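Hi R.,

Here's the chain you asked about this morning:
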Amino acid sequence: MKIVFDFGGVVFRWHPASFLARVWSHRIATPEQGAEAAAVFFQNYGGDWGLFDQGLIGADEVVRRISARTGWSHGDVETVVRAVPDELMPIPGTVALIRDLKAAGHSLYFLSNMPEPYADHLSASYPLAEWFESGVFSGRVKQSKPVMPIFEIAERQFGAVGAELLFIDDHPANVDAARSRDWQAFVFTDAASARRELVSRGLLSA
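And the predicted structure, written out as tokens:
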């Protein structure tokens, strides 16, 4: 089986509300405020941030646009954008899952909405070539999930048709999009439940 992993929130830590609460401790006092700020800042990965994800604008421009749109200071917005790479730490349970899946003989790939600067950071900082046979970063192909072209690009790059692929992503919209291409897919909530799902599919031993 060819198994495709999302990155943020699946392989690498990404929880925008708590991230903003840490980076903006002067602005955010409660988890609820963190969630509200994250919704405005990242626009559910559309808008300004969506263009950044797709590699259509760079870091300086996304900072300028978010600051202009929200009224938050340029410095505060830039602090967040620059802090993202350090937030993207590997999730130990998922790394163990990757190693176990490889040991079981499965081919692993990734499909990630990731701006180019962060894709470059992850490629330089972690053994992606050891974990995965290949992968697609949105910022490098100028398309992003859940729009169909990025799934088509992935199929070509992975040399597979939809039915041969199992996709693991933490956003239901992306899982639904993959299923519409006839990919197998399920929503990731944590590494332990993902392991149980893979065991139930016969892809790992209990």
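The chain has a mean pLDDT of 96.

Let me know if you need anything else.
M.
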